[in-house]
Specification:
The protein is mainly alpha-helical and about 140 residues long. It has helices at about 5-25, 30-40, 40-55, 55-75, 80-85, 95-105, 115-120.
Length: about 140
């Protein structure tokens, strides 16, 4: 297999994991489970994921969960934050608040949701639509 073919295969595998994460955010997503989806060892998977996506698997999952929560907060305003947190894969409302505050700088109840949607640079109304697919090729030796 040529280096270009290997890089393309790695992209396909990482994108398959991104699809899996997006479809299973409400579940426990372990490194070993995701590595199996990618058909890599845990060590190799974690290294490749971070190189291609630019953040760790856990950081990526947290970001996806918060973005799903933002979407639900906007489109389901009558739902409680606890219900939204559970649907997004957070095991408690306190855990959701902690992760949300870390990523967004403020607790969910104090978050200015309307301003966030107005200021989005992407110009999309749907945070669930994945913009994260890996489209880069590996520049470094990952073996």
């Amino acid at each position: 297999m040529t280096p270009d073919q290997s890089a393309a295969e790695y992209e396909r595998r990482i994108n398959r994991v991104i699809d899996y994460i997006a479809g299973h955010l409400d579940e426990t997503l372990t490194l070993s489970r995701l590595a199996r989806v990618a058909c890599f060892s845990e060590f190799h998977f974690h290294k490749i994921f971070r190189m291609q996506i630019g953040e760790t698997v856990n950081e990526f999952i947290a970001r996806m969960r918060v973005e799903k929560a933002l979407f639900l907060m906007r489109h389901s305003p009558r739902r409680t934050l606890t219900d939204i947190a559970l649907e997004c894969g957070f095991n408690t409302a306190a855990n959701f608040t902690r992760v949300f505050r870390k990523r967004m700088g403020v607790a969910p109840r104090a978050f200015d949701l309307e301003r966030y949607w107005q200021d989005r640079k992407i110009g999309k109304d749907d945070a669930i639509e994945s913009l994260y697919y890996c489209k880069r090729t590996l520049q470094a030796d990952v073996s």
